[in-house]
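Q: I'm teaching a short session on how sequence maps to structure, and I want students to see two examples side by side rather than one. Could you give me a first protein with its sequence written out and its structure tokens following it? Keep the formatting plain so it prints cleanly on a handout.
A: Of course. Example one:
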Amino acid sequence: MTAVNRLGNFEAALNQTVTVEHTVTEKDTAMRWGNDLPVLSTPVLLWLSELAAMRAVEPYVVPGWMTVGIAHDSSHLAPSVEGNTISINATLVDVDGSRLRFDVSAEDGETVILAGSHTRGVINSERFRQRLILR
């Protein structure tokens, strides 16, 4: 049994894209992060790209395991204002043992607002929780 089969059948998800739709609210804006601009904040945009990546592989994760974000290399390219609905995309492009690499992007209408990559690690849920208790 390979590590990938033990952790989940992620090859089945390769090159599949999941899109998450999100309407920007006041809680999502940079104003909530100490900036005085009423635009979508970068931390929220990055989180939404992680959410899309999680959903892309969720059906393939075996019970007792989960994915966690371990790296981002993304650029926030354009602003998005409160009330706009954005589309966040994640495509699984590489499986390397327990590491899953995604191409991520987001659009506000015709405008690309995020482009980059996100890496997630597949971990044992219970073992991770036990390590948290020991901290």
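Q: Perfect. Now a second example for contrast.
A: Example two:
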Amino acid sequence: MTELIKKTGRVLAPLLVHLGVTFVVAFLGITFHMIWNLGTDEDTLLTSLSALCSIPLLGKMWKADRLQIPSAVKRQNRGWVFYLLVFAGGAAASLAGGYVMNRSGLTGMFSNQIQENLFAARLWLQIAGLGVAVPLAEELIFRGLFYERLREWLPQGLGILCASAVFALYHGNPVQMIYAFPMALLLHLCYEKSGSLAAPVLFHMGANLISVILESAG
């Protein structure tokens, strides 16, 4: 039982780190809000700051893991064309996912207010935060740490399913959960086919950036 608790705590640690940082940033945000109204930038700014503040801590955890335990994913020799296609694939997957969600009527059945608030910020903040910082932080959490630690005691297929399910749940509302699960499977495919965290990061960036651009274009 003690060993199970230790393993579970180790697997959940990156999520708890990010949640802890998010709580601190949100608390500071509430404090600043009392003296400085950030308007429509507030939600995106706090989300971006949470990601930025988490990245050094998560990166340190990831580096320590790789020094102690070899990655469960074998690194492949991929050229720049592969990574360019991965980035474009992320954008294409986001477009396809958005189309399916809209056609299915799911976006009208559930509230998606959180995402709408994030897309209400100024464009440069969305690009820097949602398009760059958030994908890097989330890939460190879910592929670089959570999934790799799951693989220490789960087989590949089950590890991917568990990590994808938690990734979906982490997004907090039904619309984003339904969208995020298949996207997580594709992110894991990128990771498995490259053996490098750069691939899912680029895929994630492509997906988020195309969403930002389309929302900005109206």
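Q: What should students look for in example two?
A: Point them to this: Residues 59 and 140 are 7 Å apart (CA to CA). Also worth mentioning: The mean pLDDT is 91.
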